[in-house]
Amino acid sequence: MRLLKTVAASLLASLLVTGATFAADAPAPASKWHVEFSGQASNDGEIQFRITPREGELVMITVKIHQARGSHFIAKDTLEAFKAQLPKKRIKSEIVAGDHVLVKAGPGEGDFALELAGSTVQGVRVHIKAS
């Protein structure tokens, strides 16, 4: 039992240190972000994004992607997920080119960081940059 408690405490400490490392690696907040997709999904899966406002709670967005979806359709799927899962007045999103999604702070809202949190979709590349 004592060994189990020691292992659990070590695991928790490791997770806390890892979480702090990820937070330090987060991109600097910006008012606009471009998300670009390339490739084609070779399996069904999910792409997860993390939005961290300068003030407030972070938001995780999950985009469901079906096998054989190309970059234009993945951009549309992402746009729909952003619109459905984000506060509409705080963060706006739109497609600015076939496979590019623009995500921007709403009027009077502060900057935010946008990151790729994870993906189970193979064959698709996601490039995120502040503008």
Summarize the structure.
This protein is of the alpha+beta class and 131 residues long. 29% of the residues lie in helices and 40% in strands.
Give structural attributes.
four-stranded antiparallel beta sheet, three-stranded antiparallel beta sheet, 2 helices, alpha+beta, Immunoglobulin-like, disordered N terminus, 131 residues
Q: Distance N terminus to C terminus? A: 53 Å
Q: Strand order of the main beta sheet, please? A: 4-5-1-7
Name given to the CATH architecture: Sandwich
CATH class assignment: Mainly Beta
The name of the CATH topology is Immunoglobulin-like
Unreliable runs:
3-22
User: How would you state the average pLDDT, rounded?
Assistant: 86
Class by helix and strand content? Answer: alpha+beta
How many domains? The number is 1
Task: Report the major sheet.
Answer: 4 strands, antiparallel
Shape: globular
Structure description:
- With 131 residues, the protein is α+β, with helices and mostly antiparallel strands.
- The protein has one domain: Immunoglobulin-like, CATH 2.60.40.
- Helices cover 29% and strands 40% of the residues.
- It is built from two helices and seven strands.
- The chain has helices spanning 2-24, 71-85, and strands at residues 32-39, 45-53, 59-65, 91-97, 100-105, 112-119, 124-130.
- It has a four-stranded antiparallel beta sheet, covered by helices on one side. A three-stranded antiparallel beta sheet has the order 3-2-6, covered by helices on one side.
- The longest helix has 23 residues, at 2-24.
- The protein is globular, with a radius of gyration of 17 Å.
- It starts with a helix and ends with a strand.
- The model is unreliable at 3-22 (pLDDT under 50).
